[in-house]
Write a structure and sequence with these properties.
The protein is α/β, with parallel strands linked by helices and about 350 residues long. The chain has two domains: about 20-170, Murein tetrapeptidase LD-carboxypeptidase, N-terminal domain (Rossmann fold); about 180-340, Glucose Oxidase, domain 1. Helix content is about 30%, strand content about 20%. It has helices at about 35-50, 65-70, 70-80, 105-110, 125-130, 155-165, 220-225, 255-265, 270-275, 285-300, and strands at about 20, 50-55, 90, 115-120, 135-140, 170-175, 180, 200, 205, 210-220, 240-245, 275-280, 310, 325, 330, 335-340. The strands form three sheets. Strands 6-16-15-10-11-12-13-9 form an eight-stranded mixed sheet. Strands 2-1-3-4-5-14 form a six-stranded mixed sheet, with helices on both faces. Strand 10 (about 210-220), helix 7 and strand 11 form a beta-alpha-beta unit. The protein is globular, with a radius of gyration of 19 Å.
């Protein structure tokens, strides 16, 4: 098994393992009208992957409690990591205020207890905690949205959970999904139809030639904005020789917000340190997103040779791959390909 990065890798999952489900951001998993959705995901974890989902003490306390008690959320994370019977921690859902638990999180607990942590959207706040602690973390499906996909879990999502979290071998090429959707879920009803799928365009190279590799870092742009000037934001040298993954560039159709976000990241100098950038599939404004990226990175920053790969399936669309932060990744511009060069678990 090839070892390239210096990050600590958590133990791989196996059938029979216990996974802690946790509400570190939004608290909808504890609401009565949403419990049916949580139960769907819980049964899928058992039936598809052989995993036993166990709730952290406060994960089912509801939106109001979760919002009003950031320390309790952090206590849940520490308890799950220090519990020897728990093999992984899966985020129930994203939200917008995960940053509020930062003062109560001991990064040393994360480093001393390296376990799989997976989530997306505001989950970036917590994967960033693991990155700061030097532990590989996973930007991927969460419990209440992805794992409870209407009707059935997408085969592509299931494949990537198994490939990244259950196998201690080189992950290799990350191929695009055949089709995708950003069609809204019907949150208020327990009766749902499968969401309409659209044929996938595949990946695009916006600029760059040849092959570049580096440690995969990044996350969702909105939560990353909130991390600036906190202990979670990487020092400039931490972006050195990295492959930066970004998702959520144009949230809710706000093209100008996407432009402002990308400019604010560019101002930190992070892109000048990186070897390449990977952008996830936008849920909308596909062509506008490409224009924004090139306007900022190529035209304004002058990074004409920086390899940029666009349209990875991982984020606020379905299905989702799993991006392991803290391992070596590669952009192959000439073949329009993206690969993970090592295992993410041991």
């Amino acid at each position: 098994m090839q070892e390239l990065s210096m990050f600590i890798k958590p133990r791989k999952l196996s059938a029979g393992d216990r996974v802690a489900t946790i509400s570190l951001s939004g608290g909808s998993a504890g609401e009565a009208d949403m419990h049916w959705r949580y139960e769907i995901a819980k049964h899928r974890l058992h039936d598809l992957f052989g995993l036993e989902a166990v709730e952290t003490p406060n994960s089912q306390r509801g939106r109001r409690f979760i919002y009003e008690n950031p320390r309790a959320r952090a206590d849940d994370l520490a308890a799950a990591l220090e519990d020897p019977s728990v093999s992984a921690v899966f985020l129930n859902q994203g939200g917008d205020d995960g940053i509020r638990i930062t003062p109560y999180v001991d990064l040393g607990v994360i480093r001393r207890n390296p376990k799989i942590f997976m989530g997306y959207s505001d989950g970036s706040t917590f994967t960033s905690m693991f990155q700061k602690a030097g532990v590989v973390s996973f930007y991927g499906p969460d419990v209440l949205t992805s794992l409870s996909e209407p009707v059935r879990l997408h085969d592509y999502t299931a494949k990537w959970i198994r490939k990244v979290l259950f196998r201690d071998e080189i992950i290799g090429p990350v191929d695009p999904a055949d089709s995708w959707t950003a069609e809204p879920r019907v949150w208020s009803s327990a009766v749902e139809a499968a969401r309409k799928m659209t044929p996938n365009r595949g990946y695009e190279i916006l600029q760059g030639t040849g092959t570049v590799s580096g440690i995969l870092r990044g996350g969702c742009t909105g939560p990353m904005q909130q991390m600036k000037s906190t202990k979670l934001w990487p020092e400039l040298q931490e972006w050195e020789d990295s492959i930066i993954f970004l998702e959520g560039l144009t949230p809710y159709g706000l093209e100008l917000a996407g432009l402002h976000m990308l400019r604010s990241f560019a101002a930190t100098g992070m892109f000048r340190k990186a070897r390449g950038v990977v952008f996830a599939k936008p849920s909308e404004l596909y062509d506008e997103s490409k224009r924004i990226i090139l306007k900022v990175l190529r035209d304004e920053e002058g990074l004409h040779d920086l390899p940029i790969l666009f349209n990875i399936d991982c984020g606020h669309t379905a299905p989702m791959a799993v991006m392991p932060f803290g391992v070596m990744a590669e952009i192959d511009c000439d073949n329009v390909a993206f690969s993970i060069l090592e295992s993410a678990v041991v």
